Task: inverse folding
């Protein structure tokens, strides 16, 4: 097993670009070739990583990336867009709003990494429900799931002919799902919708490619967090207190376990009908991580 990012062919004219180890700021991309050019599903966090991706595309597939579909507004999925200044950028309307008003994290939250000359670009095409790229016998369907899940502007990319699904961060494979900027209940509902598509191949936002078996672990983790939040709410605990007293059970060995704190912030806010204080949520993840910066290998 190589630890290098690689372009993995999934079907004729369809690839995933998988970046180990899938941790903080290390996401996956998709690539689809059609007669009018290449469509990239997302870009990535840093200049170096985005250039490596574009080199791999050039070597393996050839041709220029004509358009980028952003699966949501998180920086790992969007930052590299400035390295594709000519490409169309397609995203849900909320992504445009979120990219216009980014919330900066305190510098100590993550271990330092070099972003380089990689910046997000605002979408050039926004949609509300869905759009189809390359209509015909091998369409690329881009859909918003109709509710907030991982974020309010999620999009997934579905290739019905090849039965390949690019989920963005609606699926994590191996790492802890992160719901701080989303809705746990919405996300669980959306996982059922994704499963109903009956995909053969599922490309998660982080972690290795799999099949429909990837949905269940995410679903059970979210359900676990909702139960833990209900218990914490009854006991009047803060998200950090609740996380510190919580046995993560089957999820204890998943990387980025500190996300439990952000997830409890969101789940408790949903229960209490309040807003999440984002800087506090990030600071609490840092505290839970023994007062150390979260490991970022971007
Ligand atoms: Zn994300």
Result:
């Amino acid at each position: 097993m190589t630890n290098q990012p690689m372009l993995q062919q999934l079907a004729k004219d369809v690839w995933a670009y998988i970046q180990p180890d899938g941790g903080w700021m290390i996401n996956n991309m998709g690539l689809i070739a059609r007669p009018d050019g290449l469509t990239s599903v997302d870009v990535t966090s840093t200049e170096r990583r985005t250039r490596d991706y574009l080199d791999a595309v050039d070597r393996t597939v050839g041709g220029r990336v004509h358009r980028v579909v952003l699966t949501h507004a998180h920086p790992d999925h969007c930052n590299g867009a400035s390295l594709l200044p000519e490409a169309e950028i397609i995203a849900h309307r909320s992504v445009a709003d979120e990219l216009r008003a980014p919330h900066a994290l305190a510098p100590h939250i993550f271990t330092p990494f070099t972003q380089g000359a990689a910046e997000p670009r605002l979408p050039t095409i926004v949609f509300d429900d869905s759009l189809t790229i390359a209509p015909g016998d091998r369409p690329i369907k881009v859909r918003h799931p109709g509710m907030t899940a991982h974020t309010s502007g999620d999009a997934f990319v579905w290739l019905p002919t090849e039965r390949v699904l690019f989920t963005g961060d609606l699926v994590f494979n191996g790492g802890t799902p992160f719901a701080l900027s989303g809705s746990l209940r919405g996300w669980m509902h959306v996982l059922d919708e994704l499963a109903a598509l009956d995909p053969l191949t599922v490309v998660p936002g982080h972690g290795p490619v799999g099949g429909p078996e990837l949905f269940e672990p995410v679903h059970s983790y979210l359900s676990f967090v909702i139960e833990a939040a209900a218990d914490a709410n009854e006991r009047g605990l803060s998200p950090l207190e609740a996380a510190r007293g919580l046995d993560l059970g089957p999820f204890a060995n998943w990387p980025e376990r500190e996300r439990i704190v952000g997830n409890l912030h969101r789940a408790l806010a949903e229960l209490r009908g309040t807003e999440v204080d984002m800087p506090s949520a990030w600071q609490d993840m840092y505290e839970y991580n023994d007062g150390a910066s979260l490991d970022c290998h971007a």
Observations:
- Residues 72, 74, 150, 169 surround zinc ion (CB under 6 Å).
- The radius of gyration is 18 Å.
